[in-house]
């Protein structure tokens, strides 16, 4: 992965920059000595590492503003970091950048059940947002699988999704407003507790901009009342084609499950060995979950089971109680861990039209043989968001490169059938150089024009999202 | 009138333009500061490009009539989930509303509070910017975080960043059954409290509106028949403290009630300006009390207020400082020139918005000034 050479002039001014940052932050909030700074050298895409110039941990919007103002004056790049769970290298530092961690921005500012929103500082973890309202029967809907650890700041940067977005949408559909600090330190409010602010939808473009337009310090999020209950049903099929057809038939029948999860044979086998969830050994397994009162769940599951039965399932198992529901979800939730037991893996998240599912799975199987690397598929089938997990051995020279080439081929396939490179993880550095597969130069230029407006000096989260050769002219103009 | 029949022709027309262009779809939503310029219509850019009911996906050219899209969806038992307002009764316009017009104005109806706005159902766009460059963003899949989300940016941009040629939308299944739970005689404050209680319940209310003149507060329940009956009952129990609820069952009756709420048909024949106020529901009654409005209608559980104001009155001046957005939807050309149609933005947001327009439309020819 090519990254720009660090700016030697910045490196030589490190002492002065650190001193200036220390002057506006509490004691201990500037981390600049090895080995402490190495804690920030990578995110969950651990194949790439680079310690930053220093890391700062501000506790308020004012402190973030002061930090950015200094960095702007000094011409120092800034890499914002949520909880560092990005699988795309979204928080990978450069050696000449100040890493801005949101870990200490974790307060709940305001909660309103009447108006159904919560306002939090952006470093708060996803699950602890729900934690703050759960006792009163409410929840925050987007549920990325890293929700125990990941921060709202990162969710906003990547427009994170989760297993339940078929019904509840992703981050952008649940975000009402933000307080954002611009690169020059200016603070602004965008949106608020009300819906659909008039004017251009800046909130819409900020969400998913991978920390390149501004640093979000506070967010107003929509909260929802928990449903009365939820129950999953598990079904196994002899072929991916049939399972794909079942997904389509369920959707067409007018049932809107909250989640439809799909696992293929390699993934089922790995999961069984690891978590022993009692899954049937078959080619494709679906977990479909619906919500409502007991009677409503019965009615919806009745319909779903009817559809499922028509396609001759090898197994059709409905959870009778919370215990059984937990077991049905157990395998799915341990899938990544299970694959990790076998080997190192790379997790992709290309998204495809649901109708292309069988074809894409078949092609991935063929490529897997050609590359000689195993791959398991576990994904959100209702919305076509795939998660191929490519297994490789990081200690074998050349295997990471082979894995990356395989991954790139899968993502190109996703685009070829009408899908996209990333459904919920973001581009980061991981998919940066593939952007040209999905977008023309003009399409990318239009996106970079937005960056030009928000961050004219191109200092925020450098060298991500856009291929370096595509962004070169913008970066030169900004310098 | 310029009516390009393809993206290429549209690009050519924009490149050839020597002055401002007034962009129209069906011309049924003349919202914004009046624009002078040569009229450019998307009327000839029509057709459903792709519709996959099993994937809940629809790709359609911008000039396609809304009715054609709705008919195609209905044939498969699906619908546009965000329930776009038909502005014709309220604005006294004729002609044929288009999909592009819905998207350009982010037109969303009562169901917005339950499922999201038009922008939330947009998966992708194709458009031509002010330099004539043909661009795309997003795609046709449900989840897509590949690059910046210009799809949202285009929604509600009133043609000022580019002219839409094609949009990809997520659609949803239509429902089996529906019912309206009605409470009577509530004050505005109590009505908002009742609607908040209902919306904060697990019973999935898909519409919450209040008509102070009729003294009626409406809650909509949709879904499978037995579920609708169950939830209507539970909602009625939940709101017992606000009086005895009357429940009207049936899809047709419910559709009629909510179409009138969606289109604010009550204000259709009445004199006066119409404003649209988006605020926190709990702030709404006090703001209404300050407004000097001749009549109001609450939607979105109180988060959206339609106000019928004396001609030329400045609602924002009456409200003073408040958190939210007031938009002048219907008024004479003179009033819409004298008062900002959209809520004035804070200086940073204004600077960013202006910067974006300058990038996408450097000559300032696309509906210049329509958003103020």
Automatic annotation (TrEMBL), chain A:
UniProt domain FAD-binding PCMH-type: residue ranges: 48-226
InterPro entries: FAD-bd_oxidored_4_C (IPR004113), FAD-bd_PCMH (IPR016166), FAD-bd_PCMH-like_sf (IPR036318), FAD-bd_PCMH_sub2 (IPR016169), FAD-linked_Oxase-like_C (IPR016164), FAD-linked_OxidoTrans_Type4 (IPR051914), Oxid_FAD_bind_N (IPR006094), Vanillyl_alc_oxidase_C-sub2 (IPR016171)
UniProt xrefs under Gene3D superfamilies: 3.30.465.10, 3.30.70.2740, Vanillyl-alcohol Oxidase, Chain A, domain 4
GO molecular function per UniProt: FAD binding; oxidoreductase activity
Keywords recorded for this protein, A-Z: FAD, Flavoprotein, Oxidoreductase
Chain ranges passing through the membrane: none
Cofactors named for this entry: FAD
PROSITE patterns in UniProt: FAD_PCMH (PS51387)
Top-rank taxon, per record: Bacteria
PANTHER family assigned to the protein according to its UniProt record, in alphabetical order: GLYCOLATE OXIDASE SUBUNIT GLCD
Record protein name field: FAD-binding oxidoreductase
Source species of the chain: Salibaculum griseiflavum
């Amino acid at each position: 992965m090519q990254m720009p050479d660090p700016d030697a002039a910045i490196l030589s001014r490190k002492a002065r920059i650190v001193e200036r940052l220390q002057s506006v932050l509490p004691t201990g909030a500037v981390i600049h000595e090895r080995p402490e700074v190495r804690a920030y050298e990578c995110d969950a895409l651990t194949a790439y590492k680079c310690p930053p110039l220093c890391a700062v941990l501000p506790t308020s919007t004012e402190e973030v503003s002061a930090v950015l103002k200094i960095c702007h004056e000094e011409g120092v790049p800034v890499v914002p970091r949520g909880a560092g769970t990005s699988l795309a290298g979204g928080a990978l530092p450069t050696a000449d950048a100040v890493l801005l961690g949101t870990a200490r921005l974790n307060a709940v500012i305001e909660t309103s059940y009447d108006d159904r929103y919560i306002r939090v500082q952006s470093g708060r973890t996803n699950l602890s947002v729900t934690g703050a309202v759960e006792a009163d029967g409410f929840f925050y809907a987007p549920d990325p699988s890293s929700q125990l650890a990941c921060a709202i700041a990162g969710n906003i940067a990547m427009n994170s999704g989760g297993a339940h977005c078929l019904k509840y949408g992703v981050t952008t559909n649940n975000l009402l407003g933000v307080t954002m600090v611009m690169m020059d330190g200016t603070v602004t409010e965008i949106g608020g507790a009300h819906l659909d602010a008039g004017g251009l939808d800046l909130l819409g473009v900020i969400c998913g901009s991978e920390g390149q337009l501004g640093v979000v310090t506070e967010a107003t999020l929509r909260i929802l009342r928990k449903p009365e209950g939820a129950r999953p049903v598990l079904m196994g099929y002899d072929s991916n084609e049939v399972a794909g057809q079942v997904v389509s038939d369920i959707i067409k029948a007018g049932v809107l499950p909250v989640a439809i999860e799909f696992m293929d044979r390699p993934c089922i086998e790995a999961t069984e060995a690891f978590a022993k969830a009692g899954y049937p050994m078959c080619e494709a397994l679906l977990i479909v979950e619906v919500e409502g009162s007991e009677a409503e769940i019965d009615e919806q599951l009745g319909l779903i089971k009817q559809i499922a039965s028509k396609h001759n399932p090898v197994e059709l198992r409905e959870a009778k109680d919370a215990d059984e529901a937990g077991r049905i979800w157990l395998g799915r939730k341990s899938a990544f861990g299970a694959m990790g037991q076998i080997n190192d893996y790379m997790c992709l998240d290309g998204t495809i039209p649901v109708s292309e599912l069988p074809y894409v799975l078949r092609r991935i199987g063929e490529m897997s043989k050609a590359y000689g690397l195993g791959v398991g598929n576990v994904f959100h089938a209702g919305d076509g968001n795939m998660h191929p997990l490519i297994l490789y051995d990081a200690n074998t020279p050349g295997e990471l490169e082979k894995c990356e080439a395989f991954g790139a081929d899968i993502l190109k396939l996703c685009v070829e059938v009408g899908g996209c490179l990333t459904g919920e993880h973001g581009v980061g550095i991981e998919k940066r150089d593939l952007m040209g597969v999905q977008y023309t130069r003009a399409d990318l230029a239009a996106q970079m024009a937005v960056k030009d407006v928000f961050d004219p000096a191109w200092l925020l989260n450098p060298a991500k999202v856009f291929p370096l050769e595509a962004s070169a002219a913008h970066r030169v103009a900004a310098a | 009138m310029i009516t390009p029949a393809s993206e290429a022709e549209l690009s050519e027309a924009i490149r050839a333009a020597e002055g401002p262009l007034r962009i129209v779809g069906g011309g049924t939503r003349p919202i914004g500061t009046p624009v002078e310029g040569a009229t450019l219509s998307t009327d000839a850019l029509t057709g459903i490009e792709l519709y996959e009911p099993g994937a809940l996906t629809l790709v359609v050219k911008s000039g396609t009539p809304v009715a054609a899209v709705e008919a195609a969806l209905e044939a498969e038992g699906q619908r546009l989930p965000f329930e776009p307002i038909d502005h014709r009764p309220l604005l006294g316009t004729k002609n044929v509303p288009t999909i592009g017009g819905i998207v350009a104005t982010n037109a969303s109806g009562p169901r917005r509070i339950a499922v999201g706005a038009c922008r939330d159902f947009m998966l992708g766009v194709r458009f031509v910017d002010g330099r004539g460059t043909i661009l795309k963003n997003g795609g046709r899949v449900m989840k897509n975080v590949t690059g910046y989300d210009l799809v949202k940016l285009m929604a509600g941009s009133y043609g000022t960043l580019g002219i839409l040629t094609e949009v990809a939308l997520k659609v949803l299944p239509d429902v089996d059954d529906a019912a309206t739970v009605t409470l009577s005689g509530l004050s505005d404050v109590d009505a908002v409290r009742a609607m908040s209680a209902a919306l904060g319940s697990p019973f999935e209310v898909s519409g919450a509106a209040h008509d102070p003149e009729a003294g009626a507060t409406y809650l909509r329940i949709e879904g499978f028949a037995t579920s609708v009956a169950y939830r209507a009952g539970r909602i009625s129990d939940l709101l017992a403290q606000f009086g005895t609820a009357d429940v009207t069952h049936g899809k047709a009756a419910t559709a009629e009630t909510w179409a009138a709420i969606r289109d604010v048909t009550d204000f259709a024949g009445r004199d006066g300006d119409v404003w649209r106020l988006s605020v926190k529901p709990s702030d709404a009654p006090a703001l209404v009390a300050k407004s000097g409005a001749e009549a109001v209608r609450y939607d979105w559980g109180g988060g959206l207020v339609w106000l019928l104001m004396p001609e030329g009155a400045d609602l924002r001046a009456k409200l003073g400082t408040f958190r939210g957005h007031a938009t002048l939807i219907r008024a004479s050309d003179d009033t819409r020139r004298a008062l900002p149609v959209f809520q004035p933005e804070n200086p940073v947001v204004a600077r960013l918005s202006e910067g974006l327009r300058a990038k996408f439309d450097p000559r300032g020819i696309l509906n210049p000034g329509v958003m103020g």
